[in-house]
Amino acid sequence: MTLLNCLLAAWYGMPFISPNNVLVSAINGTGVVIESIYVLIFLIYAPKKEKGKILGLLLLILAIFTTVALVSILAFRGHDNLKKLFCGIAATLFSIIMYASPLSVMRLVIKTKSVEYMPFLLSLFVFLCGTSWLIYGLIGKDMFIYIPNGFGCLLGTMQLCIYAIYRNKKGEIKKLPSAEMGLAKSNYFQNGQS
Fold first, then answer.
1. Residue 14 domain-assigned?
2. Residue 33: is its pLDDT beyond 90?
3. Sorting pLDDT into bands at 50, 70 and 90, what band is 171?
4. Contact call for residues 118 and 162 (beta carbons, < 8 A)
């Protein structure tokens, strides 16, 4: 989801979509490169079953981005305000989805009373990233930057509060599935009960 968010935000920041947002394109373009390297390394070393899933998601992400880019160029030719609105809404929607992805992990932390699956540094940087982009969006009066990052700041704050509440508590977890990248499964076993 982060790759799609970076792709759409970098596209939104392009001068022919949203003038005076080159910083948004530069930073999110860097994010695209970093995420692409991460996905490539994962695809090289992951088990075959996982490669298929991630490759499918990668194709979906590229299809969504290509659709947004082509629609913005072809359908809104000569309509700069509509082009910016369309790309801004797409970037905002997927940015909010990206920031909301750890909600399942937050639920897991509350149920298990353990922060084992919610790393502190990840929560801290979600908060810092959301806050810094929120401030940038407010200064530039760009709602397509401050709205999704306001959600990011709020959700980062919630993660830090949950971390503070449960950091010293040890839940009695016997078996818990992987919670990588904010996608935790709701089936867990605590105290021998399902």
1. yes
2. yes
3. low
4. yes
Report the amino acid identity of residue 186: S
Q: Among 190, 184, 5, which Cα is nearest to 93's?
A: 5
This prediction has a pTM of 0.79
What type of residue sits at position 136?
A: Y
Q: What is the Cα–Cα distance from 85 to 91, expressed in whole angstroms? A: 10
Residue 181 domain-assigned (yes or no): no
| Measured torsion, CA atoms of residues 23, 27, 32, 37, in degrees rounded to the nearest 10 | 150
Domain membership of residue 186 (yes or no) is: no
